[in-house]
Amino acid sequence: MASERDEDRGGTERAADPKVAAAIAAAEAAGAQHGETVRVDSWIWAVRLVKTRSVGATACRGGHVRVNGERVKPAYSLRVGDEVRLRHEGRERVVVVKRLIRKRVGAPVAVQCYVDNSPPPPPREAVAPIGVRDRGTGRPTKRDRRELERLRALNSLSGPTGPSSPPGPGSPEGRSGER
Predict the structure, then answer these.
(1) Region of poorest pLDDT, from 103-107, 132-136, 165-169
(2) What's the whole-model pTM score?
(3) Which end of the chain has the lower number of beta carbons within 10 A, N or C?
(4) What is the pLDDT of residues 28-82, one digit of tens each?
């Protein structure tokens, strides 16, 4: 009796597998044949690392895609075993190509086309936006606004009110003899 139940459970688990298996078969049919290659911009789009192929091509042209440590153009030919590094949306993805595909596939199938060696994404608390005010506190005062501008200047590389700029006549450092 227990073995029949186990078989029934196995049957329900296998019911989802034929869909994935069919998707994998379709991806293999649409993929490159043995010894063929695929464009890097097309592959990173097909395995869902970027949203559109044009975003993948733009990333390649901008130097954000590296294959085996070298910057590549969008038409670079990928092979199985290549390491692809993609800087996208504030994080770096490091993947090793397991299977070459040309057409975009579902997420469960796409994950099987590469090995993800990416570092974990930063925690959400560490990426808190600067200058967000609490709800209901009203408009910022002149003092609050100046403090926000000072914080933003410290975080930007070359801000107009950065620490290296000389104090102007309106800044607190420039008003030494007033009052």
Answers:
(1) 165-169
(2) 0.57
(3) C
(4) 665 555 667 899 999 999 999 999 999 999 999 999 999 999 999 999 999 999 9
Identify the burial level of 135 via C-beta atoms within 10 angstroms of its C-beta, where 0-12 means exposed, 13-18 middle and 19 or more buried. Answer: exposed
Residue that the structure tokens 């091509």 belong to: 57
Looking at residue 136, its pLDDT comes to 83
Contact 83, 95 (CB under 8 A): yes
Q: In this structure, which long-range contacts are made by residues 107-112, counting pairs with CB atoms below 8 Å and at least 24 apart in sequence?
A: 107/48, 108/20, 108/23, 109/20, 109/23, 109/24, 109/27, 110/46, 110/47, 110/48, 112/24
